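Sequence of DIS3-like exonuclease 1 (Carlito syrichta).
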Amino acid sequence: MLQKREKVLLLRTFRGRSLRLVREHYVRARVPCLSPLCPQPACRPDGKLLSSDATHYVVPDWKVVQDFLEVLELPELRGVVFMQTACQAVQHQRGRRQYNKLRNLLKDARHDCILFANEFQQCCYLPRERGESLEKWQTRSIYKAAVWYYHHLQNKMPILMVTEDEEAIQQYGSETEGVFVISFKNYLDNFWPDLKAAHELCDSILQSRRERERESQESHRKEYPEHLPLEVLEAGIKSGRYIQGILNVNKHRAQVEAFVRLQGASSKDSGLLSDILIHGMKARNRSIHGDVVVVELLPRNEWKGRTAALSENDGDDKALGESPSEPMPTGRVVGILQKNWRDYVVTFPSKEEVQSQGKNPQKILVTPWDYRIPKIRISTQQAEALQDFRVVVRIDSWESTSVYPNGHFVRVLGRIGDLEGEIATILVENSISVVPFSEAQMCEMPVNTPEHPWTVSPEEEQGRKDLRKTLLVFSIDPKGCEDVDDTLSVRTLNDGNLELGVHIADVTHFVAPNSYIDIEARTRATTYYLADRRYDMLPSVLSTDLCSLLGGVDRYAVSVLWELDKTSYEIRRVWYGRTIIRSAYKLFYEVAQELLDGNFSVVEEIPELRALDEESRRTRLEELAWAVGKLTDIARHVRAKRNRCGALELEGVEVHIQLDEKKNIHDLIPKQPLEVHETVAECMILANHWVARKIWESFPHQALLRQHPPPHQEFFSELRECARAKGFFMDTRSNKTLADSLDKANDPGDPVVNRLLRSMATQAMANALYFSTGSCAEEEFHHYGLALDKYTHFTSPIRRYSDIIVHRLLLAAISKDKKMEIKENLFSNKDLEELCRHINNRNRAAQRAQKQSTELFQCMYFRDRDPEAEERCTSDGVIYSIRTNGVLLFLPRFGIKGAAYLKNKDGLVISCGPDGHSEWKPGSLQRSQNKITSTTTEGASVTFHLFDHVTVRISVQASRCHSDIIRLEIISNKLHMTPGAEPFLQSALLLKSDLVKEVTRSVEEAQLAQEVPRDSIQEEYQEYRQTKGKSLYMLLEEIRDLALLDVSSSCRI
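Predicted 3D structure, token representation.
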């Protein structure tokens, strides 16, 4: 039974007056304690409970949860009871990121901890007394809840409350028998004396705190202005004086250039058409990349322009002599609404650098791997031992009296330059967790072993449409694919019309809402593909077995069946539902293309036909070839219809990895554009479109769709300029006019031109995003790239959590149509919008990680080669953009994009002799719209135009603190020809796996040459390896469609 209480809140208005608010607060007698020791069944609901083998329960105080959360995250700590009061303190005082970490910890089945809602339990709820500080009330509430918890369990389990409040230890330490109040440090020393990781973390945090306290007492000089109070910021935003947005630091000029992208009401009310420039660290005022900040605009006479010159690092600005662009809105940060601090990978300075930093050798300035993050000061005695390693740190604070933020050491990742250490760095920098699936999650998985094979259940057989004997179902996938999400079917109906079918793995049958595996999949949100490995969203028993629509086995599916007109292919009707299918063939793209071309000699590559006699084989082959051909006819019609509406064909580079018998990489095979690729893609797009329409019609305010907004016209300026240089006109007013312009922009003498123009169009695009239909007007649903009014993702539930949500929505819509009870747990609009933000964030992280791992492999390939002597290090390059001090190049052979300087740090400019070879000489550069001219003091000049071909030398610029980068140098203004190759017809990519094979060999040689003892650092490596084996690349056996993508391709449909 609910009981009403009154909760009094004392607030202060922005005018300084006190305001007393009284809120209703309801408490109840029964709140689940989630302990298996409790005799009351209501206290043990389905879901996560504390373990039954704990020797004690530990209740952390609010301050311990705030300061020592990463220690509490260690899986060795068991029986942790987080009180609601402590969790709310984290939410209100430490921001969303820290609170979300706590929420994820509580959901994670691998960690023995629970949340107890003490403020809703009538015996635990304590009103705040008059004059009592918030901190004292929080500690008192948590202690009372700990005492109640002990008595509620009938005194069966001792309770330890850990706190940093010495007064609380003195007051409550011996007040209640069975409830002990001690310091967190004392708790670790007495109960976990051998848990080294916990002690190191605790010492690091305590040392960092002592340093901050000492600094605040000693330093009185202000390095930065104080942030304005929250109430002043909110009032200023409301009045329009201040502007709210997200800080984005320019990684090429991290010390001087950052931009604030407008957010919320500020983006509509400010009247600004561009981002706001924040020039210099002082104006940034202790805000860090990703923070939600409040900005005050400077007077117009103080506005500055962004820099148009190329830059390798922040120190290059003066040497390169850049000229700024037109002034743009410029401001300064006056406050931070939300700190989005995360784990940062850093490098310790060398021994010489440590000695030069200052008097105190224990206070070290470490350099983050991410250029956009300022140096962080930490206190440690391990600086010399850690200087060759990548290390994780966390920021604790950034006071106005400190030039740099203060932080503490967390853990070691691996040696600098070691492949596993660098991969671990990429994962941490993108907040990607790759821990193995837990025992609790795996216990929810179905069993499919030779002893206990999985079979279709009689209940499912009755409730699903059985298509095993009525349809010819088959899949078309890349070679080596194991996680088959989708299959296709087509047949002629009795009246002559056609039936097209798309059948998608029914993952939701095995992944129940809010189950352990569902929560884990939701957290991961996607499968992460790196250049040499992948980390799955779901366990392999689902992703490569029971949810994979393999040939010759029964599988559950969710199907969309269309009846099409026999001549026009127009859709007459559509059916959605759960089905049982048995795929007849598992075709590769190349085999399907041969069948489409009428080449039946590939019959030996179709294993399902090998055992048949000649006549049966011919009959089955003709039937299959007809189906592939008919699917292609339908796809051509669907594609033509979208083309008429303005569908875009954008540019990307994709390579498949081929393995040898020992599962090592044997070859890199460029993906050849086949018509059958478009056939499959069009069928998937059609299914996604029709499912989007269906779920929106049934749930107009809580459907998950995917929008692709039209780009801002100013983003097309470089595309239009480059096209004009070749005599082409780019009409960017709509997707239709842009598509037509790109189709016409073909240079018969140089096919690279069209590829580069399409790549520029891709760069101008905004990313497609998931959203909840209740949060957008219907006119905003449109997908610009695909030219569809409504679109979603339905066809890949094995590797995308968004598709799982869409499957549940579709099944709920089907139940709604049948007037049946909706069994699926659907998200409200608010919850779905929050989930969409999370999935969008994880998708961006996956794209960044894939891009960074590709760049890592490129650098490792070129790192140990002599640029002067190695033929591989010389390549043809195409100029696609011109800057004030250099050009941007595209290297078709390697799929690399990068900068080449025409003026070096010494002020010398490039000069090319009669034979085309270049050298550095004194002189000057003059840039015009489509060209740049280098003129020496001797009067010789050379001009580089857009789309000129030049010869480029490739080398690697190594860095201890950051990732290595590819360095490009123009060595001739002539086209580079590989011996025996025709101009412009060289392969766009490497045909042999020199890159990855060389990296593999180098890593193996390094491991043989330097045997490192298996210490704790080696154990850190293993944390990041989801697939084990002698060869680093054995995990590639599991990869379905691994691609090294063109790193410029930022648009994801």
